Amino acid sequence: MNSPGRYRVTLETGGRPVAYGWWESEATARRKVAAWIGDWGRPGARITLTDEETGATLTTWPDEA
Question: What are 12-27's pLDDT values in tens digits?
């Protein structure tokens, strides 16, 4: 079975994951983060971009303080 993609975007609301997406291109995944912020960015939502190969969190919305 093929990997779904190196870069994973996760949408959480109320502390629970509600949507995921995987992309091979980091640039595409970052564009998806921006689109998801536009679509789902409201109080209580959290959007995270993770590099599945390294386990690193590349960005989160809202920004962590």
Answer: 999 999 999 999 999 9
Q: How many domains is the chain partitioned into structurally?
A: 1
Residue 39 lies in a domain: yes
Contact 45, 12 (CB under 8 A): yes
User: 0.85 exceeded by the pTM?
Assistant: yes
48 domain-assigned? yes
**DSSP letter string, the chain:** -----SEEEEEEETTEEEEEEEES-HHHHHHHHHHHHHHH-STTEEEEEEETTT--EEEEESPP-
Establish if 2 belongs to a structural domain. Answer: no
Tokens of 18: 């509600």
Range of the domain at 50: 7-61
